[in-house]
Amino acid sequence: MKSFAAISALTVLTVVTAKPTATEREAPIKARSVPAVEVSGNAFYANGARFFIRGIDYQPGGSSENVDPLADTTICGRDIPKFKDLGVNTIRVYSVDNSKDHKECMQMLADAGIYLVADVNNPLYSINRADPYPN
């Protein structure tokens, strides 16, 4: 019982004296964004006008390649102008690596007026069905 009281007191003391870790303040990113798409009834609207998705699945190398095309500015810089020429206003990406930077490609998409539909699966961070507990 005495050891429990000592551990409890130590825990309270630790919690009371704990201080948050300092973080660096980042400057806000000034990015041009595309208008929000809203749903009304069975239709999409952007800026009050009916929005029709004219899109493609975008995964250079195919869906099994598991390469993040939005992390490579060479790839997206090459392809986004072609999407615009084709009249594409929405792309779907299969694989996104959340440990990489996507700012430049996302800005290129926004500048071109192209929306992104991102799958939430990730081959690097997923649950193994055969052995889910260690994940």
Q: Gist?
A:
With 135 residues, the protein is an alpha/beta fold.
Query: Major sheet, described briefly?
Result: 3 strands, antiparallel
- CATH superfamily assignment? Glycosidases
- The total of helices stands at 3
Shape: extended
Strand arrangement in the largest pleated sheet: 1-2-3
Question: Can you lay out the helices and strands and say which pair or pack?
Answer:
Layout: H1 2-17, E1 37-40, E2 43-46, E3 49-51, E4 55-57, H2 73-86, E5 90-93, H3 103-112, E6 115-118
Parallel strand pairs: 4-5, 5-6
Antiparallel strand pairs: 1-2, 2-3
Helix pairs in contact: 2-3
Explained architecture:
The chain is an alpha/beta fold. The protein has a single domain, classed as Alpha-Beta Barrel (TIM Barrel), CATH 3.20.20. 30% of the residues lie in helices and 16% in strands. It is built from three helices and six strands; from the N terminus they run H-E-E-E-E-H-E-H-E. A three-stranded antiparallel β-sheet has the order 1-2-3, with no helix packed on it. Strand 2 and strand 3 form a beta hairpin. Helix 2 runs parallel beside helix 3. The longest helix is centred in the N-terminal third of the chain and has 16 residues.
